[in-house]
Amino acid sequence: MDRTRNRVLPRELISPGASAGYASLLFIAGMIILGRASGAPAAAIVAAGFAVYVTLYSLCLKRVSAYGVLVGSLAGAAPPLAGYCAAAGRLDAGAAILLAIFCLWQVPHAYAVAVFRSDDYAAASIPVLPVRQGTRGVRKRIACCVALFVGVVPMLTFAGYTGYGYLAVTAASGLSWLCAALFGCKASDDRLWARRQFIFSLLNVCAVSVMMSIDFAHPA
After folding, report:
1. How many domains does the chain have?
2. Which residue in 41, 60, 153, 155 has its CB near the most CB atoms, within 10 A?
3. Exposed, middle or buried, 66 (CB in 10 Å: 0-12/13-18/19+)?
4. Residue 162 pairs with which residues in a beta bridge?
């Protein structure tokens, strides 16, 4: 793949065995530090995310299934979920809402990358959805996921975890993303549309993350 060919593994600057050993060392050290600093539940969530990403997504699904991204989204949601658990000391409705938000965000984000990098994925024989089924169906799936994302994001306010400033900013950014996604159903340039979706996804995850950290509340 053009976007990864200059990394150290493809250039054989480090062996796969050394890479796996270094990664394992970092994982063990990270679990020890996180467990001591933030507690076992937060460390368990990170360990589960690591297992999902490395085992289920990377080793089992990435090269055989077009729907691996759905499983990978769980790993992508693990860091904010672990952070919430570390700060709150529990898993509750707020944690469930965060899990839904970041899982729903990750799917259209990943699909957008797969569309404008589809040649790369095809050359590497990675069966992402745009390679397997074309972009028409992917556009509809992106629009559906964005609509669900826009519907779930306000639940933090309705459940009492954030204020109305968060609601206003995230609603504006989310609806803008949804309009752009719906417009994509008729766009003629797939790659240009996908790049715009990618940018909108980054803006939205930034808006949600910043506003929830600024305009937070404690539910009754």
Report:
1. 1
2. 153
3. middle
4. 216
